[in-house]
């Protein structure tokens, strides 16, 4: 049993670089297990199109949530947080499919749009900005 999440893209992410642009990567945590996408250098509109997969010990109950974090990658120091979102898996577990628009919060208080849908317990997440 497994759960897959397709992390598609983001747009208009906050720029935290002085001389270039943020280097975004997406981290998703399910039940304490972290998966991350590759880093897209120097791009505020990254297209990851990457599938992250978790092996599950048991069927999801619906009380779980996905913790989604978008970071600016830094080679020499800590990555910088660009935005976060906690997504409940309740609907996708009870209905088998889901189509959601939700908000990804950034440090500056900007709101970024997230849409999520699922087919056969695989979640497809599209992260994008609305600001
Ligand atoms: Ca960086």
TrEMBL record:
Q: Does the keyword Calcium apply?
A: yes
A single Gene Ontology CC annotation of this entry is: membrane
Q: Where is the signal peptide?
A: none
- Which PROSITE patterns does its entry note? C2
- C2 domain residues are 1-102
Does the entry feature the keyword Iron, yes or no?
Answer: no
Print the keywords alphabetically.
Calcium, Metal-binding
Instruction: Kindly name one Pfam family recorded for this protein.
Output: C2
Q: Which GO terms describe its molecular function?
A: calcium ion binding
Q: What is this protein called?
A: Myoferlin
What's the source species for this entry? Geodia barretti (Barrett's horny sponge)
